[in-house]
Fold this protein.
Amino acid sequence: MKKILVFTLTSFILLLTSCKKEWLTIKPKGQASFETLLNKDGVNLLLIGAYADVDGANNKSAQPQAWSSGVSNWVWGSVAGGDAYKGSNSGDQALINDIAGFYLTADNTYVNSHWMLGYDGVVRCNDVLKAVQLATGMTDVEKLQAQAQARFLRAHFYNELTIVHGKVPYIDENTPNPTEVPNDHLLWAEMEADLQFAITNLPGRWVDKGRATSWAAKTFLARVYMSQQKYDKAMPLLRDVYTNGGYTLVPDFIQNFLIATVNNSESIFEIQYAVNDGFGADNANIADALNSPTFKSSSNFFQPSHALVSAFRVDNNGLPLNPDATTYNANEILPFDPTGKTVPYKLPVDPRLDWTIARPGVPDFDWGIPDISWIRDPANGGPYYSKKSTYLKSEKNIFSSTTVRPGANANNFRKYKLSHVILWLAECETEIGSIHNATTLVNEIRNRAKKSSVVRFSNGDPAANYIVEPYPGDFATQAAARLAIRHEERLEFACEGARFFDLVRWGIIGPVLNKYLSVDGKILPSLANKVFLVGQHEVRPIPQTQIDLSKKDGKSVLTQNPGY
Amino acid sequence: MDFLYSSIFFLPNLIASYMKYFQLNPTRGNANSTGQNRFFFSAKSKHFIIVFFLLMNFSFQVIAQDHQVTGRILDQDGKELSGSSVSVKNTNIATLTDSSGNFSIRVPNSSSVLVVTFVGFTTQEVPVTDKSIIDVTMVRDGSALQDVVVVGYGVQTKKSLTGAVATVKEEQLRVSPVGDPASRLQGRVAGVTVTNNNAPGATSSVRVRGYGSLGNNNPLYIIDGIPRTTMDNINSNDIESMTVLKDASSSAIYGSRAANGVIVITTKHGTSGAPVLSFDVRTGFQQKTNRPDLMNSAEAGENLWQKFKNMGLRQGDPGWGTAQYGYGATPVVPDYILPAGGMVGQVDESTYSWPNPYNAITKTNKGDIDWYEQIFSRAPVQEYNINISGGTAGKNNYSLSAGYLDQKGILNYGGDDINGRTSNGYKRYSLRSNGDVKVNKWLKAGISMGATFNNFTGTNGTGPINTTLTLSPLIPIYDIRGNFAGSKSPVTGNGRNAVADLVRNNNDYTRGLLLQASSYVQISLMKDLVFKSLFGFSYDANSSLDRNLMDPEFNQTQLVSTLSTTATNARQYNWANTLNYTKLIHDDHRVSVLVGMEAVDNYSEFVTGGRSTYAFTDPNYMVLSSGQKDVTNSGTFDQSRLFSYFGRINYDYQGKYLFEGTLRQDASSRFINQYQSGTFPAFSVGWRISQEDFMQDVSWINDLKLRVGWGKNGNDNVGNYNAYTTYIANGSESYYNISGSSRSSSVAGIHQSTLGNPNARWETSVANNLGLDLVLFDSKFETSLDVYTRSTTDMLYNDQKPATWGEVNLPNVNIGEMQNKGFDLNLTYRGKVGKDFNFSVNANISHFRNEVVKLNGNPSEIRYGNATEASFNTATVTGQPLDAFYGYVVEGIFNTQEEVNKWPKYNPNVAGVDVYSMPGVFKFQDVNGDGKITPLDRTFIGDGYPDYTYGFNIDLSYKNWDLNIFLQGLQGRKIINSVSRNMLFIRNDGNYLRKRLYESWTPERYASGSKITVPITINSDANMQLPSTFFVEDGDYARLKNLQLGYNFSPTLLSKIKVTNLRVYVQAINLFTITKYSGLDPEVAEQGVDNSVYPTSQIFMLGVNLKF
C-alpha cells in the first residue's frame, strides 16, 4: 500500500517535471501578435484602427483627452480663436480658460493630451505601413491603397500636431527609437510627401464613405500649402477638385450640419460617427458631447462669443456690416441681457447665424425656443450655444447616446467640403490669380446661403430679419477681396475649429485677437485683461511631460517653444 | 543607527570569513568505556585561536525495574491540563492526560525520567525514582520560547528561529475590529504597516518592511498551504495564527513571490480531548467620527459675491450675479432653484412637469438639509461564530466552525428610519472544517476546507461622499412632488444627488463564493524521513449587478436605465511535494533537511453583459434579458503558472548554534526563454548566547539570541504576458464607422495594445537582517530588535516612454535599484501584582526609510506617480523615496503689489508679462533660481512614509475582570490633502469649505490682520490648484483602536451549568484620534495622498464568548 502510494505520487511528479517547458508556455488571450497581422485582413484591421483615431479620442486615456484633441478642434481652433467662450460654469474644465486667455503653461494637461492622441494616430499609421511591407496575399494595388490611406491619415495627425505645437518630432515606420527624435523642424515637407503619395495611389471614390480619396488628399495638400502661404501650389490642386472632383454644393446650407444629410454631395472627407453601436458613445462625436446646453443633457461648453454673433450682422443689402475683425468694437455687439433673458433683435442678420448658433428667443430646430433656463451660467459664457454638432429632438436616443454622455451623437464632422475648396480657391485667386474669379467663388457660397432655408417660428414667420446677398460686383482691391473672403470663411465655417489656425496663416491673429480680447473681455470676466502675444501664442507649448520623457544621453531632445 | 546598518552588512562578511578560516573537521574521538563521543572543530587559522570545543555526555544504564506511575498534571491555578504529553525520556513510551488531567504510564525503571510537555508551558523533567504517584504542576512559559511557529512548508520552535519571524495568535487577533483579517494585524507586528480601508468588507493594505518594488508591494499569503495574493474573504475568527516572515532568510523558501514578505495563515485545528463547543457573539453599531465644515446656501452665495468683487466687478457689470442668487448688490437665496431664482408668488407650481419635459419645480434648500448628515447614519454590525473542536490523542483531531458577519455601512441614507434606509453593507457567511487523521504507523492525512460567501449590497465606495462635498448647497433632496432634485437646476454645478444615487444603487450587489481546500498525505518512508504531498485548490466566483437608473434631475441626464452584470471566476491549484529528513545525532546535532517541488496554476475568466432601456425599474423586472437596447457583452480568460524546486537545511548544535540555509528555484510562465527561471538562496545563523556556559550564572537572562540572515527573493509581478507585444480589437479604441452608411454600426479595427519585453527577468531583492532576542527576569520581559536593509535590484517597473511610441501599454522592464533600511522593535513586559492582578504591556515600533538608489542610470530620470486630474502629486527620482510628493513650494500669499513686483514672475510670456501674480494669490518659490516660476520649479516636497509606526497594547486582568487598551499610530508622515483642492478652489458651482469664505485673502482682511489661511477667491485659480506645499499637511496620528472590558464568570459557578468558560465584554473601537490633519481621516491611502477616503467609524460592541 505504502509503496503503491509513493510510486503513484512519484510518477505524477516526474510526469509534471518532464513537460515543464511546455506547461510554462502561456500565450496572451484574445490578442494578436504582429506576425498574425501580416496579410490582407490584418492590414485592413490595422488600417481601420488608424481611422479610429481620426476622431481625436481613443478613450484609453484619462480626461480631458476627448475635449482636448477632438477633431472638431473646438478648444484650440474655435475657443482660442475668439469664435466661442469656454462656457459651462467657471470652474468646469478651468484649464480651457488658460488656453483661451493665453496664459497656459507647459504642464497644462490639455497640451499633453492633445499631443498624445496625435502621436497615437501616427503610430497606428506607421503600424499599417510596417505590416504592408511584410504582408502576404495582397495585390500591389491593395498594398498601395492601404499605404496611401495610412499616409493620408499620418499627414492628418502631423497636421493637427503642427498647427497646435509647432515643431514636433517626426516618427515614421522606420524610426528605430522615437524617444530620441528631436523637434528641429516643421513637418510640412513630410506631410506633403505623404499626401502626394496618397494623391497618386488613392481612388476618387470608395464604396466605404469614410475612406480617404485622392480628392480628399488633394484638398488636404492644398490646405497644407496654404498654411505655408504657398498659394501657387495650392491653387491647381483646388482648381482640380473644384472642376473635376464631381462635388456639388448641397442646396441648403443647413444640410452640412444635419445627421440626415451626412456624406452628401458637398462632402470630400468626413469623420464618420456611430452611436449606440454596442460601445455607447465611444465612436460618436464624444469630443463634442458636452457642448450642448444642459437642456440637452450636456454641460453647455463651447458658447459662441459676442464677437462671432456680431459678425453675422449685415446691412440692408445683405452684405456684411463690418467684415474687418481688427476694427470690431463694443457697439457692434448684438444686444443681450447678461442674465440670459431674450432680447429680440430686429436689424438684419445673415440667416446662417441662426443655423450656426442658438440664441434666446430663436427656435432651435424641433427643441423649442431657448430661454434663460437653458443656459447653464450666462454670466460665465453668454447667452448662446453652438448648433453645429448636435442632433434633433426627433433623433434623440436614435442618433444620440442613450446611456453615458447623452450629448454625444452620430453627426459626422465634415472635415473637408466643397465649400472649403471654393473659399480657399477664392483666397488663391485673390493672392495670385484674378479678383474677378475670387468674387465669383465667394458669391457661389453667398448665393447658396441666399437660397437656403431660414429659421422660422412655428407660425412660419422667419425668426429674425434675415438677408444675405452676393457681392454686387468684383471686389475693388485685393485688400477688399481678402477681407471679404476671410470674413466669408469665418461665417460659413463658424464653430468648426478652424478660426485660430486661419488667423495664424493669414498673419492677422495678433490684431484680431487682441481686439476681441479687449472688447469681449469687458463682458466675459475670464477674458478680462488678457493679451495675445505675437511671436509666442501662435503655437502652444511642447508638453512638459514629453520633454521630461524624450531623452538621449540624459538630455531632452525636445526644444520648448519660445515663451513657455 | 548608521552603526547598526553598517554592522548588518559587515556581519555576513564576517561570518563568511569565519567559514573560510574554520573548516568543519569531524573527527571521532576515542570512544571510551562510558560511551563518550567527542566532536570538535579545529581552527586552521593562526589568526584565530577560538576553538569550539563542545562536549556532551550521555550514558546508558540498562536496569530492568519497570513499574506503573500515575498522576495528575495541573497548571499553576490548579486547573487540570488535559492532553498533556507524558513520556519517558529516551524511549518511545508516551501517553496523554485525560480530560481530568490524569495519566498512567509504565516506566522501565526507577532511574527513568518523565518528560511532561504542554503547549504554552515549560517542559518539565521529573525523575521517577521509586514514586508511583507523580503530580506535576506546570509553569506557564511566559516567553513562549517553546511555541511552535509556522514557517514555510513546516514548523519550528520559536527558540530555534534564525530569521525575522513574528507570529500573531488568535488571542491577539480577536480583540481587534471586525472586518478583514488584515486590519487585525495592525499595530501588532513591528515592521508590518497596515492601512485600513473602512468601507464594509473592504481590504486593508499590508506592507511588510516598506516598499520593495515600484510595482506590486503586496505580501504573499499562504493559507493552509495555498498561496494567495490576498487574505480577503477569510473569516478572521477561523484564523489560529498569522506568521509574518519578514526577512529574506525566512521567506526565501517561497522564492519568487516572497520579496514583499510572506504571511502564513493557519486556520484553527482541533486539539485532543473531548469536544469543545465555543460560541462567540458580538453586536454593536458604528458611527461616523468626523465631518467637513461646509458652507450653507447663504454662505455659498456670499462666497460668489466675494469672488465677483475680487475680480474687480461691480454690480450691473456683465459677469456679476447668477441666475440663482440674482444680480443685486448682495446675494439673495431664492425660494426656488427651479425655476432659477424663483420667489414665492412668482412661481406657478402647476407648471410642474417630470421627467420629460423636465420642469420639476424645486424649492431651495435653505439650510434645513445637511447633506453630509443625510448620507451617514448609525449602522449596526453583528457577528456570530460557532466552533466545535476536539480529537483523540495521537489519532485524529477536528475543528468545525461556522460564522456570520453582518456589517452595514455607515454610508447609508435614512438615519434611524429603518424604512427609508438604504441597504449598503457587507455580509459574510463562512464555514470551515479542518481535520487530521493518523491512519497507521506510517500514514497520516488531513484536510482543511473553507467556504465563504460574501455579499456586498448597495454603494460601498466613497462616491457619495465626494458627491456631497461638491454638491451645491442650494439643492434639496426632493423637488416639490417628491422626485429627486438635482443639478439640472441652472447654475447649481455638476453635482449628483447623493441620496438619489444611494437609493438607486440599493439593489446593486457583488456576491462572491470562495472555496478553499487543501489536503495532504504524509508518509513516513523510514525512520526520520517523511514524505508529504499537499494539494491545494481554491475557487473564487463572483457575480455583480450594476443598475444605473435614469437620473432626470442631473444636468447630464442619462435618459434611460441601464444594467450590467459581470461574472468572474478564478481557480487555482497548487501541488507541493516535500521530503523531510530530521535526525538528532548524538543528542547534540539536530539536522533537518527539506527538499520539495511545487507547481501552481492560476486560471481566471470573466463574462459581462449589459443592456439599456427598461420598461420598468422594479428590481424583479429589471434583469439583463428584459432590457430592450444596447446589448453589449465581453469576456476573456487568463492564465499563469509557476513551477519550483526548493530545499532547506537546518542544523543546530545543542540548541546553541543555529544555522539555516535555503535555496529555491522558480520558473514562471510570466518570463520567457533564458529568463524563465530564477534562483533564490538564503541563509541565516543564530547564536543562543544564553545557552553558553559563561552565561549560566546570569540568572536574570532567560534567553539571549543573536540572529543574522541574508537572502534573496524575487518578484514576478509583471502581469501574465509581459513578454509579448500584442494587438487588440477594442470597440471603444479601434472600431470605426468606415462605411458611413449606418449611424449605429462600427467596423472592427485593431491596434497595438501592449509592447512586450521578452527580456524581462526576475526582480531580485537582497535583504540582510540582524536580530537580537532577549528574555529577562523570569521571562517577564521580552524584547526583540531587528535591523535590516533590503535592496531591490533589477527592479521591475512599468516602462515609461514618450507619447511618440503611441498610447500602448508599456511592459515592465528591469531598471533601477531601491533600498529600504529600517528596524523593528518589540517590547513586552508581563507582571503580576499581588495574587489577582496581572498585566502585560506590549509596545512595538518600526521604522523604515525608502530610497530609490538608481533609475535606469539616467540622473535626470523622473517617473510620475499619482495624479489628480492629470496633475502629478508624486514622482520618483534617484535619491528620493518611491513616489515622493512633487510640486511647487508655496511661500505664502502676496499681500501687496510691491511684494508682487519684487517676486520672480510666474511663467512670463515672451514679452515678460506675468498674468498670474497679484495680491492674494500664492507666492511660489523660484526653486531653481532662474528668476521665474516655471514647471522647472516643481520639486520634492515631502513624502507619505511615516518615520515611525507604533502599536501600544496593554492587557490587565484583575480577578474576573480583564481590560485591553490598544493604541496605534504614526509619527513623522505627511499627507497630500488632495480633497481640499476640490473643497477650496473653484471647481464647479458646488460647495466649499467654510474657510474659503471666512479665512480667504481679501484686502480688507489683510488690512485688519484677520486670520488668512486660503488665497483670494478668483475664477482663474487653476495655477493655485497645482500640487504644492499648500496641500501637504502633517499626517501624524495616534488612535485608540480598541478599548475592551471583559468579565469572566467564575469556573465554579459555571461548572454547575456545564459551561467551561463564559466571558462578556464591551468594546469601543476607534474611540478617539489625536491628529492635526484637517481632512476627514489621517489613515489615508498608504502613500499619503488623500483623494477621499471612507472615513473610519467608531464602533461600540457588546460581546459574549461561551465555551462548553
Observations:
- Confidence is low (pLDDT under 50) at residues 1-64 of chain B.
- Residues 2-21 of chain B form the longest helix (20 residues).
